[in-house]
Write a structure and sequence with these properties.
Length: 363
């Protein structure tokens, strides 16, 4: 026998490869074609997602900055401003909404979901119920919201939603995240994604490594982001999630804001982010739609533009799923006043166009 094969033979017998990861089972049933079409439409050229899924408490923080009271009428008025902006569908393929918004109407009685559909914009829904601390594991968290998830998916599908979002929050420090936190987040993200696909919703898988918070180096961010993405795709495969029918929403690889060499590290963002994705994200995934995670509007646009300009292997679309990076100047211009609606919509269109150009590497 060829002696060079001995080690291989030994390896195969001592390492038990899980058989079911070889070919994913079809879990999406009758929704296969629709899910694929939705995922591809989400990453249409020159388009990205508007993340308007701030929870009631989070939108309150945004409203505080412009002295607007956090009541339902103001939340409806603000989302209406965004969704009735003339022509925004040129730059926005879909909108992620919070449950309240998914069931709201315009002033003249039209469902927001019907308004968006009439513009050819896909409706999305935030499904997670926020992070909770893992008992005995310091600051590490896991996201809750799996109970009754299939029923909620079916209800939102009936209301017009065609994709969903679930965010895991990964702390970064010298010692965090723990192995436990990474495993639990990956398993939970995959479980959510599998349930979505059975109910006809394209899952946006969002493992957000909180890279900007702290004083760690960009190398530490790269290490942690790589670990969480590897763990997440291992679990997605293990739980039979169809990679062709999902979207990844990761963070950029960034140094902590308090990192002593922040500006110098910032120059490496393009190369390290692409290296991280090339090492971890299978080409079957149609699109990677980045979160802006505390970056300014300009920073978010510049980084995305640089990624799309880079001359290297990119088998997936690289686009945006921005919240603050699409809305900060809009909120500033609007300030809760009816007479400022037009100014708010102008600001929204201007920033959406910048993001669209960045998605094409045209800035």
């Amino acid at each position: 026998r060829d002696p060079s094969l001995q080690n291989t033979h030994h390896y195969q017998h001592t390492h038990h490869f899980p058989q079911h990861t070889m070919v994913a089972q079809n879990i999406y049933g009758k929704f296969g074609d629709e899910l694929k079409a939705t995922a591809n439409a989400m990453v249409a050229p020159g388009k990205g997602l508007l993340a308007a899924d701030e929870s009631t408490s989070t939108i309150g923080k945004r409203f505080d900055t412009i002295q607007v009271e956090n009541v339902e009428s103001n939340r409806q008025a603000y989302r209406q401003l965004l969704f009735t902006t003339d022509g925004f569908e040129k730059y926005i393929s879909g909108v992620i909404m919070y449950e309240e918004t998914l069931f709201q109407k315009t002033d003249d009685g039209k469902n927001f979901t019907d308004l968006l559909k009439s513009k050819g914009v896909l409706c999305g829904i935030k499904l997670d119920k926020g992070p909770v601390l893992i008992p005995g594991d310091g600051k590490n968290t896991v996201t809750q919201g799996l109970d009754g998830l299939a029923e909620r998916c079916a209800k939102y599908y009936a209301q017009g939603a065609r994709f969903a979002k679930w965010r895991a929050v990964i702390e970064v420090s010298d010692k965090d995240p723990s192995d436990l936190a990474i495993t639990l987040s990956a398993q939970t993200l995959a479980r959510y994604a599998a349930i979505c696909q059975t109910q006809g919703l394209v899952p946006i898988v969002e493992p957000e490594t909180m890279v900007l918070v702290g004083k760690h180096s960009i190398e530490r961010s790269l290490e942690v982001t790589t670990r969480i993405l590897n763990a997440t795709f291992y679990e997605l495969n293990r739980q039979n999630v169809s990679l062709e029918r999902m979207i990844l929403k990761p963070n950029f690889v960034l140094p902590g804001r308090e990192c002593p060499s922040f500006n110098k590290c910032f120059e490496q963002v393009t190369d390290l982010t692409l290296a991280c994705l090339q090492r971890t994200v299978p080409p079957a995934v149609p699109g990677i739609m980045f979160l802006s995670g505390g970056l300014s509007e300009k920073e978010s646009v510049d980084i995305l533009n640089n990624l799309n300009k880079a001359n290297t292997k990119k088998p997936w679309k690289l686009s945006y799923s921005y919240g603050r990076a699409l809305q900060t100047s809009t909120l500033e211009a609007w300030r809760g006043k009816k007479e400022n609606i037009e100014a708010g919509q102008k600001a929204f269109m201007k920033q959406a166009e910048m993001c669209s150009k960045a998605e094409q590497g045209k800035l």
